[in-house]
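Objective 1.3, modelling of assemblies. Example input:
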Amino acid sequence: MSNYHIKHLEEYYQVYRKSIRNPELFWEEIAEEQFLWRKKWNHVLRWDFSKPEVKWFEGAQLNITENCIDRHLATRGDKTAILFEPNDPSKSAEHITYLQLYHRVNKFANVLKAQGIKKGDRVCIYLPMIPELAISVLACARIGAIHSVVFAGFSATALSTRINDSDCKMVITSDGSYRGAKTIDLKGIVDEALERCPGVKIVLVAKRIHSDIQMKEGRDQWLQQLLDEASDQCIAEVMDAEDPLFILYTSGSTGKPKGMVHSTAGYMVYTAYTFKNVFQYKENDIYWCTADIGWITGHSYIVYGPLANGATTVMFEGVPSYPDFGRFWDIVEKHKVTQFYTAPTAIRALAKQGTELVEKYNLASLKVLGSVGEPINEEAWHWYNDNIGKKNSPIVDTWWQTETGGIMITPIPYVTPTKPTYATLPFIGIQPALMDEHGKELIGNQVDGRLCIKYPWPSMARTIWGNHQRYKDTYFSAYENMYFTGDGALRDEVGYYRITGRVDDVIIVSGHNLGTAPIEDAINEHPAVAESAIVGFPHDVKGSALYGYVTLKDTGESRRHDNLRKEINQIITEHIGPIAKLDKIQFTSGLPKTRSGKIMRRILRKIAHNDTSNLGDTSTLLNPEVVQDIMDNAL
Ligand code: PRX
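Predicted structure (tokens):
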């Protein structure tokens, strides 16, 4: 495995150049090295960004679970695959070995089959961070069913939209979940969602909090009973390289969430290769990513990437603040975690608590620290570096997206010199480009533009479920022959990239992507609301928080604004989930609009940022007078 693990900067440049000069040869060599193929490919890559169509390893056949589980049994059967740390710190952690994982996934796969789930069927998974979540994901993959995991913080409305968009036949959930000192009635949310989902015939329910829930006759079944009766042997379905592995929804600039479709072989090869290199993973390491499997970070770097490498991956059910803000460090010490991967919003929240709770614990096991999900600000970077890494563990600031499937721009620890707030260099095989607003590529260093990718990589999403045109319009229409990321970035004097943030109407709040349109649609359903506009503003923990400008209908009735604010956040919680609640709501007499009726968000953004010294030209507005009014009443 000569070119598998990159060890120094010269080697990075060498391998990088090779991967760019002949990407097909490069990825073919990686794919040849360590995976289990039922049949090898006929073509490494076929692509055409104008359609867009991308196919990696066409003709190959495999099952990803054979690569993530079966392949390790001979040498790592007794090794811990999943190390489950429960919400309650007084309960012991569960070590699931590769052999146990094999049996549990097979049993679950047999349950799915017995319930009539077949290759290509969609299964929605709405579970907390318990082992059944990872196991159900793998069980779907074992039989070729397409999993669609919905983060268990989403509301019933958001869940039903996602279930219906991809016609899921089954939902896998639990009686409830623990979240710190609280419990959440997940099954109740599922019941409400399913009132709008006639296609769902079966609900499998895992027991977690042992609450007294309603089981719907003929639809709901206790998972454990079915597992107890199932065989622990299940022959893996043979999948084509390009068969869809999963759908994962992400917010967009328009109302409906986008079901990003990821395929099997390319996704496997890329997540495995990036995992190994970005975390410099070694055989006996204990790797912990704090994300939820409901997000892409959990799919790629809790489940598939680590397991494809035979790693031990920690799954944490709880929250960083329970029983106190030292919980993360307690877990690092207890399990001797070697790689720790989290989000800037968590780092900022923990930094706020000071260092007392950090100093209590021995963090000497740590070798690599990761950051993902949003730009990491300088202060958070230094706090992480000084107090958690003790200046000994490199920080990998990894830039990527649900759509990219795997890490795209990142330092390689102990190889790439890091620089605070910079994601640094493209990963092997990734060809970024910065574009100006006229569609011209900015060549050379010290430039600032819109971030695109010029050439396919194996784990890129292949389409949006049921809407290929939207996939094309969103990602391949802004610049010819380029994948457009929606992010702005700059390249410094040595070629390092710094992500400057979204350039579209997506706002990242606590690391969660939120499209403004779905939130505005929800608010506009309130009977008193005429229209609304959402923008982001800087927040010291969340990175960005949401600022809503709301114009009320003139009903003659005067309502208390405080009550309305509560009702608006209530509607948002019902439609999307609590993560999309607004921090500030300003009632306005109107919204600034262009003559064609488009809301001038640029102005609203400046007001929310408290930066009104230069609002630009407002004379072209249809209603310039509202701007002063909004400024005078800004929150
Ligand atoms: O704006 C970028 C930001 O998160 C977006 C992708 O969000 P999502 O699809 O939810 O995936 C998040 C986890 C991979 C990107 O378009 N983002 C992600 N990582 C970084 C980042 N922004 C700056 N620096 C990062 N390291």
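The chain has a mean pLDDT of 95.
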